[in-house]
Amino acid sequence: MPIPDSAHAVSVCLPTWADVVGYEEKDGRILAKMQTGYPRFFLHPLINQVRARLPAKAGQEVLPFASAVAARQCAAMTGGQAQQVEGLWAAYFPTEVLAVARAYWQHTGRILSSRAAEDWLTSGRLQPKDDALDQVMRERLAGWSGAPASRISLHPSGMAAIFSAFEAVTLRRQGRRNVMFGFPYTDTLKILEKFGVGVEFLPQGDQSDLERLKRLLQTESIAGIFCEFPSNPLLQVPHLPHLHALAAAHGVPVIVDDTIGTFHNVNILPHADLIATSLTKAISGEGDVMAGSLVINPSGLLADQPTPGRDSGLYAADLKVLERNSRDFPTRMLQANANAERLARFLADHPTIEEVFYPGLDPSTVYQDLQKPGGGFGAVLSFLPHQGATSTPHIFERLNLSRGISLGTHYSLVCPYVQLAHYHELDWARSCGIDPFLLRISVGSEPWPTLKERFTRALS
User: Fold this and answer.
1) Which residues contact 92 (CB under 8 A, 6 or more apart)?
2) 181-210: per-residue pLDDT in tens?
3) FRET partner for 423 with CA separation of 20 to 30 A, picked from 152, 257, 310, 369?
4) Confidence tier at 311 by pLDDT (50, 70, 90)
5) Domain coverage including residue 416
6) Same domain, 427 and 323
7) d(CA 376, CA 144)
8) Does the pLDDT of residue 172 top 80, yes or no?
């Protein structure tokens, strides 16, 4: 079932551990029951209805996209062609390369939204861009981020924002590798691996990796350095000021994904050239709209360049929902921050838990220096039970929370993150220090006594 109960939900309930495994192994029993899924990984039923309506020849497949640029890029990757059909851009390609097209859809995030699909199916056309509301949303983000609204762009997803950042830095230094500093959300690394000329992956993101990066920059011209603040799923905090100073000395831009940290909690703009944010998450808070933003530091290395992806935009119907959802973002974050810190301390003291990952448990001076007045340590934490291989599935199924992917919602979510993000590369994840039996919690704004009671029961 979709989470929340909406035709445009971005999450889906996988109620048992076996369901999670079945989904990853493409078990027909599980897939047949799924009414929806995360829109980059799972083609929404409305998207499939659009595909069925678009004329395709025998031996040909089609995917609709949010823009002509996306359709053309997908067509180029698949040896196909891009066409505009009744105002909708789509890529046509041979059936045998559908997996390649689906990978482009997933990794770049330049997808057609379910609301756009719904409008096209209903009326045969898309809504025109709402420039006035676009300005309102960018000004709101400007107030939270500290960057001018003119240096902020909106995108169909958080991943689309990261992909636009990737394009900007690789165009600036063509033919150069990128660096991934710290263990990231899966698709960021996939972009650097699949769309660039190579990536230097420094999975720990610690002082030792900073020294490795220092040596690398002395011998190689790098296009960009990507990192997260904090990281997903271990909530590690890189020394962003040192990282940025080192990169700037070599003319290398730093791109930071602050989706978990959020504009409410930390001020990272002085130490980033680009900030990519999944607005799908905490800024929306409902889990019923896909969106992303890219902020350019007006004093950074890319200050004299056009705002990457400024022409991509967000579909008008999605923009309307995002604007409404985001109005109470600061209020929601206050409660979610407080709940998450309480929960992290509760779990850290619980005898069944081996380790808890949360920036507020042992705050680094780096996080504290970048923390905004009134900001907290975020609403996401991860924990590893003792004997996780046997206990984690049991806890997951007993925990009376929504069991779904995504994060940042005003209702709490529990996710077997490593299983979902790295199921086909678990040994590799383990080699990077990521335990496959970790559980990630996106803490909502429910009353703390309710959350405490639910975790007490699940861990008993």
Assistant:
1) 56, 57, 60, 61, 62, 75, 80, 81, 82, 83
2) 999 999 999 999 999 999 999 999 999 999
3) 257
4) low
5) 329-459
6) no
7) 15
8) yes
